[in-house]
Design the sequence.
């Protein structure tokens, strides 16, 4: 299993925290979890975390927001619980949920390489 975490930055200021994971043998599939930061770049204690399942077909990366029971993570500590699909999709985050997820996938080197090279498996 491959895991990691980081801060998503915009102009040097953190705008979200993220986590990712994938398992060997499941090429083109991975999970991303995101939690936005406040306008000052500070973590929002108890805000909740959205967990996304992702897979790549021949041309696209397809995302699905998971329910808490389907999440590979059970606890995010001070960040709060895994949010339900309805709550996640109804959020008014700025930038929006999928913009954050796309940015994480593009800017996190291990995920970007996994997306660009799905057949290699990046073990």
Sequence:
């Amino acid at each position: 299993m491959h895991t990691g975490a980081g801060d998503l930055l915009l102009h040097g200021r953190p705008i979200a925290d993220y986590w990712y994971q994938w398992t060997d043998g499941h090429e083109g599939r991975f999970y991303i979890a995101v939690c936005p930061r406040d306008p000052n770049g500070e973590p929002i204690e108890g805000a909740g975390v959205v967990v996304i399942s992702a897979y790549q077909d021949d041309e696209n990366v397809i995302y699905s927001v998971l329910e808490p029971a389907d999440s590979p993570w059970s606890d995010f500590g001070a960040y709060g619980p895994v949010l339900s699909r309805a709550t996640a999709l109804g959020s008014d985050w700025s930038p929006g949920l999928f913009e954050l997820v796309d940015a994480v996938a593009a800017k996190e080197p291990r995920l970007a390489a996994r997306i660009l090279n799905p057949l290699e498996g990046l073990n």
In short: Helices lie at 85-89, 97-107, 109-116. The chain is about 20% helix and 30% strand. Residues 97-107 form the longest helix (11 residues). The beta strands are 2-10, 13-22, 29-36, 50-56, 61-65.
